[in-house]
Amino acid sequence: MLPTELPYADVYEMDCEGAETTILQKMDVRPSVLLVETHNNHNEVCDILSSIGYEIIEVIDDSMGQSPVNTHIRARLSE
Length: 79
Prior knowledge:
Layout: E1 11-14, H1 20-26, E2 33-37, H2 42-51, E3 54-61, E4 71-77
Parallel strand pairs: 1-2
Antiparallel strand pairs: 2-4, 3-4
């Protein structure tokens, strides 16, 4: 399924193994909450989320000080 074909939902959980930036940039729907796992692209994902109207609510760092840096981001659509 293409990012432009995603159906609306209140919550999306994204575990896309590095494709999250492409999907976020191209998806047309704006769920109320996004849960995004990052794969060494945390800053880029945060920048994209902010640019498309989301507020970062929580970040969990799963990398345990190792590389690559993997995080889980919880973001809410800004009102």
